[in-house]
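Q&A log
Question type: sequence-to-structure
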Amino acid sequence: MQNHSIRALGLSLALVAPLAAQAQAQAAKGEPTFNPRISLILNGTYADYGRAGEAEVPGFILGPETELRPEGLSLGESELAIESNVDQSFHGWATIALENEDGETVVAVEEAYLNTLALPAGLALKFGRFFSDIGYQNRQHNHAWEFADAALPYRVLLANHLADDGVQLRWVAPADLLVEVGAEVLRGSAFPGGGEDRGGSKGQTVFVHVGGDAGSGGAWRLGAWHYNADAKGRETGEDAIVAFTGDSKVSGVDAVFKWAPEGNPAQTNLVLQAEYMLREEDGDVTDETAAATSGYDGRQTGFYVQGIYQFMPRWRVGLRYDRLHADNDVTAPAAGTALADLAEDGTDPERWSAMADFSNSEFSRLRLQVNRDESRADGKPDDQVLVQYIFSLGSHPAHQF
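Response status: OK
Response body:
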């Protein structure tokens, strides 16, 4: 384990070292220096479950990396972030994720993209690997979430995030009111797409955001979006491998309202947000473990609402409610297979979460969270306790609105 960690750290440092060497060389020649901002985010948890931790949710096939946090102490996803203007026309961003999988440290490129800075008429282009601009929370990295875990609709319908290789074109209207329209052409390799033959563009999104001010100290934003993906042999599941081939479409709406006295959030502030998603899938599913195949027509919805209140400097409390609903048509739900589990959609999984966190500075946060989770396959509630720490080593760019 230690050797894996050393190799992972060595790879990360190898990525950073050439940037520093370039800056020194340019400075010695009197040339403009390339001076990226570099930060390392440490994100760990302690988890205690009232019952054995199970990832399954009735009526849903979960995507990759949607398992519950390990019980006890664990180091979650740590991130090495690098960002800078490349020149007067381009801005670059890269996030290297370091995770523990089955006792080994895995290094993955989470995001690596370029933004244009000087396109005319309110246009902007992004290309590379990035978190899609669908929804409100999708763009946020794990350490920026207001709770220690993803809301159920994100976890179940999008496998926590929609992130993929592609190109995004965005346009902002020249008006006092925020009006932003965008579209993305994606490789389609990310859940709920994925599977074999990922050449070309198998995923597409469109989104629109509208926002503005609300009285003294208030601001709001509304959004709507749609994602379409072509899946071919998309494999998911833990105990039984389930493959899906067909069309997967996800649509959603989101709303956020922020308030602070006279617009100054340093003392107190309030953030309210909510999202609703609808996923429709049409095709065939196969339980590869049992060699059983069936036609599949799935209609699944989910929403969450949450509020975060900073009642004094550095201290916040929050409450979240999330819920799912599935209405699946499985034409041949063979008994004892994952197909029968997919057809068991009579319950509406739900969860209540309460949290309190303390930020000693903008670079550190400690959080206590309690969940009343009723999303398990047997419908019995589970009381969960999560303790989380988030520390930023180095300057980290401000998060989006």
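Response note: The CA atoms of residues 241 and 288 lie 6 Å apart.
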